[in-house]
Structures
1.
Amino acid sequence: MKPLVLVGFVGAALPSLAQLQPPGSVIFIEEPDVVRKRQVRDKIAGSELVRELIEWEFHLAGKADEFYNAHRDLDPAAIVPLVEYATPFAARLAERYGRPGSSLGAAQILRDKALLRQVARGAGIANPESETVHGPADVRAFMARLAESRGRSPVVLKPANRQAAVGTQVLHHPDEVERAWAECVVQDEGIFVPDRPMELRMLVERCVEGPEFSVEMLVQDGGALFVNVTGKQLYPGPRPVELAHIVPADIPSALAARLVSETGRVVRAAGFRDGIVHCEWIVEDGVPYLVECAGRFAGDGIIELIQRAYPVELNRAYFAVMRGENPRPMPSKAAGGAAVRFLTVEPGVVLSVEGAEAAAAAPGVFACDVSVSAGDTFAGLRSSWDRAGDVMVTADSPAEALRRAEAAAALIRIETVASDRMAVAAK
């Protein structure tokens, strides 16, 4: 039996994979440091699905070719990246084994936001003004040039090669640059990345202002098999972290069609061949501006929302594409709506968490997760990793799904007290 090779460990994928794969057919490849820090071997112990866990430093250049030469007899059915940082390794490994994949060139373009800007601009795709920067002086110089051409405008300072909005911040004034740079270059993702340092590369861009969307597109031989447009909302404040996703986006069909068309242009510009893309856009004055595009499954539960709203077996179709098979015809329109709403927490020490059971029982809710408990310390919202939980719902329409998600999230009350007040009370 040919194994399914998954690069990057995502424990939440195991239940759905069990419906698609026979016992003993899955091989995980994960970084040694991550295996240790996340206790991956304990998490897969006793799993009938997992054949093997191979520890390999897949973040590093050349490691896919090294892996292939050390495992020439593996003969995988498919090679699939489950995390952002795995996409170049998985793409190159697929090339070496002769399996479907995005192509290494496309994976490298999509992994590097600066390179993606260069390639997309060359294809005539709208991008915000953007520059690579090496320190606060570069950021201030960019802001000054932008002010001369457009008037004072906010900018986004962000890494070129990170995920989950890590190290990303919106700046409105040059006086904010020093503090923001010091905060943004601290990009510790804890247990999810290896202990060795990762290269630091920063971008500054004009902050495009308008409604935000993402397009999820299943691609085979460079053509779209399935598309969905997701609407999104952000938490208020300087950190552009998603507060909610709505499937499908509740927008005019003409705008949805344009977002899909522009995503197709990104796919062609990058030379993406087989797989799935999650392409993010901001629409300003009617023009979709490219934010970024990932060559892997969307996070934040978006895939589950899609599968319930249409409905469609997107997981099954994706793995079919990666095995070189032709999936069944897929729907072009959703039959209902689905939404995820993330929780809001004030910084401090968590005193109590109430209402989770009521939220789980609210109309339309099919998943409810609260990841903090009394005694935990919440340092504030810096990236997607810092969100304290979510509720996921279905409904007859996207608007009703969002309303239900907001109502269910409002039932969950997380009370915190400032850390300094807690220390005084303890004395």
2.
Amino acid sequence: MTSDVVDAQAIDLGAVQRQVDAVLEDFLNEKTRAAAGRGHPPEVVQTVRDFLTAGGKRIRALLCVVGWHAAGGGGETASVLRVAASLELFVAFALIHDDIMDDSTSRRGRPAVHRVMRARLGADDRAERLGAGGALLVGNLALMWAQELLHTAGLDPARQRLVHELYDAMLEEVMYGQYLDVMGTGREADDVEAALRIIRYKTATATIERPLQLGAAVAGTGAAVLDVFTRLGLPLGEAFQLRDDLLEVFGSPDGACAPGLSDLREGKRTVLLALCLRRADRAQRERLGELVGRAGLGEREAAEIRCILQATGAREQTERLISSRYEQVLEVLDRAGFPPAADRALRGLVVTATQYTS
């Protein structure tokens, strides 16, 4: 496959997304055929396929390809598209497992995978435990397949070594971030720095920094470009998650993203909540303590929480944190000197990452 997505003026991100989707489709078709030939349960591959096609803007894959262009990549795109597609299977693994740990009911408008598995077991009184176990295994397979795509990207030994080092670092960071998130839920909820630390481990590296660096590694970049992507990726990743937290609680002004209840029911330790608790008076803190983390929280109680988030200025302060990080990213881009097409694509993705969910 040769590059048909970049010219002197622009990188066609829509074309990149279609090409990544084509790589995923071909790969999963191969897995479907292999499963049929070996007598494996056919619904496993279909579950992963359904998850991947349920939505998502492929922002990690797009950043990977744009990172490749920014680092001077050109010509044959087969390798970078395969690495980019691997990131989408990686995020499928991470989100499937995240939903199990949070006991989320849905993901991207569809039932969460563990809920799908639970429903398949019908009235079995072990359905909840076994459904979670089935989803855990599906997530594990998604991660194994992500690694398979990476191993078969056709890279020379030096580039393959760097790509795997970056990928391994990303996996470790996400695991530590998820551990901090799970073990910290409901404790020290007003600790803003602890909430930001979770974001850096769990989101900033895997969503922004590492995808950019992986694309650059495929292009054969040096340490200087990797450092630029760290200085760009970490604040952008923080802004991305801060925006996601706001959208989860308040929805989007245009109604495209509806307010949710899962973070409030879980008592998720977000920066938004930490800022609110830090600024709240005694009565507000007591009321938040009664409501946040309640499994049966309803819309009326959620509306009360939103009012407190507004009244304490936590929502406004979170918006300011996003804006400051957005400006920081633009300053990095202004000094980076990337090729014009890559620079424009990155600036567009910066807007996407700070305004919408993935």
3.
Amino acid sequence: MHDTIQPLRLYFHPRSRAAMVRWMLEECGARYETIRLEFGSTMKSPEFLAINPMGKVPALAHGDTVVTESGAILAYLAELFPERQLAPACGSPLRGSYLRWMFFLAGPVDSVMTAKSQGHLAQQTPEQAVEAGYGRLADVVQTLRQAVAGKRYLCGDQFTAADVYMASCLRWGTMMGLLPDLPEFSAYGQPLVERAASLRAIELNEAEEAAQPA
């Protein structure tokens, strides 16, 4: 276990993937500092590029350790706070499912939503679908649908970081019109978004937005 006494610092913007990391930090009961960065300006500053050369948020600093990429940060925090049981233990029969959905969300789901938002799917050919890691949007949607249908959590009876990730992606995807608003998605995701930690994170993000000058 890492020394959680070391400071946790979240580089974020409330309207970014960093919102799910803030939810995860609240689930962990973590004490953390937030540093807001702006798109195209402070995210590209030399100071932040030294932390994340991609110039993107979220980024998490834990002492001298820096973790980027949303899924990696969620997984890191789950292991940093094992008492919260936010990841199935190594050797658990649920571990494979946990890893499957963490990587599926980080790869095909994120990629296909980006491709759709930028208009790259309108003229997708069968050959391009074969080459793309996400295949077709319909493939991703059907996989997500099967993953959450009738489920309270993705990993048996255990709420995990994968649920934070899945519920966040479904909420963002449907809100932005990048995923269809299916009843299976809302039946699974809405109760999770209404968890106390999620609501705290949403309230903090909204307060952050309200405090910014118009």
4.
Amino acid sequence: MDIRQLVTFHKVATLLSFTRAASELKYAQSSVTAQIKSLELSLGVDLFDRLGGRIQLTEAGQRLLPYAEQMVTLAGEARGATRASEEPSGVLTVGSMESITSYRMPPLLEFFHHRYPSLQIVLRPSLCAETCHALRQGMFDMGFLMEAETQHPGVQTEVLGSEPLTVVAAPDHPLTRAEKITTDALRQTQVISAEAGCAYRELFEAELNDGTGEPLPFLEFGTTESIKRGVTAGLGVSLLPTATVADALEAGTLVSLPWSIPFEVHTQIAWRRGKNLSREMRVFVDQTIRFLAEEYAGAAA
């Protein structure tokens, strides 16, 4: 059993795919298969069950996984300690919502592209609950959350700021003529929303459903841009992060509705609780706080 085999095992175990593991490790798939077989022979156990086109960890594989992760992390730290003068390098896998990736992260990603060209940041689209699960399982190194809660089981977070939200409608929507929008008025109109699992959508839905006795139908669109287009076309109103609609509000293609939002969500950077942050992860956290926390603070001022 050597560290190369453990790195390969950890990657296959977190992705549950020999093909994807080979791609991310930049190995031939036959090499990945050979390393896993060699590791299984040295331990005298099967680490994966092969079920047709799918694989899953055996009980022995599940017991090995946390040890493999610790050893892989320590090996990375040892390499970093011996080349402290070198720039951060390698791959960081980061889970993030579309609204954060598209509207908050570009300046941060541009900074890393120019300042740390040897550090590859791989973004995985993921809703908050999925991101927390992936962090706990070691599938993501870091993640971004947008939640009302700031405490999450098995996950450590750093709050970057409160995410401003806005209810928007097309300029000719009947509700744009009102000086103040009531919750009851919103209950009477069609709402376009992100898919279930989005924190601000669930808070909005709970507010509109409160006291009605029955859930209200939401028209679900898959992406922020498709929601904005649906609202612009007059299909309904929507609650979205202000950053995602700022350009449309300025251009006049969308209008902000005067509804007093009774809740807030916090954008957070997260990692698995108890995990020793590598040099690369520490740099990413520090620069994220530098770029995004300052941006949120400026917006709140």
